[in-house]
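--- STAGE predict ---
source: upstream dedup step, 1 unique chain passed
mode: sequence only
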Amino acid sequence: MNKVSRRQFLGSAAGATAASAFPHVWIRPAWAQAKEVRVLAWTHFVPAYDKWFDAFAEQWSSKSGVKVTIDHVPHLQIPAKIAAEIATQSGHDIVQLVGTGTEKWASALLDVQDTVDKLAKQHGGWTPLAENYCKVRSDGKFHAIPDFFIDFPGLYRKDLWTEIGMPNGPDSWEDLHKGGSKLKAKGFPVGIGLAHHDDSRASWRAIMWSHGGSEVTKDGKTITYNSKEVREALKFQKALYKDAMTPEVLAWDDASNNRFLASGRGSWIHNPISAYRTIEGSNKELADKIFVSLSPKGPATRRSFANCRAYGVTKFSKNQDGAKAFLEALVDNYRDAAKASTGYNMPFLNNYAKPPFPVISEDPKLKPLEQDAEYHFTTGYPGPLTPAADEVYQQFVMVDAIAQFATDKMDLEQTIKWGEEKIKAIYAKFA
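--- STAGE serialize ---
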């Protein structure tokens, strides 16, 4: 054994005494030696959330000694930026996955199963939606850490729907058709965008799924667009467009239905609550008339679209452990994040998905959203979010099919054939 001098012994003893006297002193981990973590994130639709996120990152930076830099960009720019960074193998340590799913980028993202398992143990496990969005089929592991999903409820003018005998708004898509037709005649149409923007891809899928239709089966491979259920959905969609809407929806973008409701002309829109929040801040009199309901049910079931958000750690990151530690802390603080988002960020962890919810459970108007985790799904439903399913989504195949049928450019069978051929061609590329 090596001899220990009296001075060395006393120094060691003093160190041990100090450690036991102050058990909560934070010892900086090895990953903190790499001084920076860069994050690519979208510009949140609720500006207050970005303020909270930036402040949270600053606080975590002060504690860890690792500077966190968040670059906020519009959501539609995120996929191109991720692709460019993968091509150059340089850029952000953390990238936010916006709607496209994890599998598309999996080869460039770190396996984060260890962090995901730790969070699951602490917070009651992940919802099926989180697994579908972040787990990769090739290895059965998570390559992204789920953050939150964006739901699509109904936002309706209670005063207008009360006038036609539906004080609680439409509970079914057929209610929306019948009531919306009456309100359009009064000068207050329904608004669902039918152009190349995110909301259109979400809302029209909700109608198809609620009619029992889908693009593929649960195996994620077998094309099911040529079906009785999809035909029934298309017929309903055309009737809803013609009877309850105006042609302006054919040229809308993601902000158009928000502006439509804020104008006072809109009787109902299918949209996240950001539209309601914006009106609250600009026109309280109108906001008092706007209520929130579940996304409508169809003849088969109630289904709506979830636009998901998750974070991947890039394989080229120089501080992967620091990146994972930051994301773990972010998920641990979900309730504060949801509060900062004014109820916009919906939970992916089971314990967070149980009432009471921050903000939502405290507001009678928003309380119906407590059920949203039960019936929201994402691209590829009822199967996984594969790269093929994502490309069908990105190419607006469904939206273009509905628009052509609704405006009488194709009959029903032409529309089915056109859509089926497009979907088959895309899936063949990934076979």
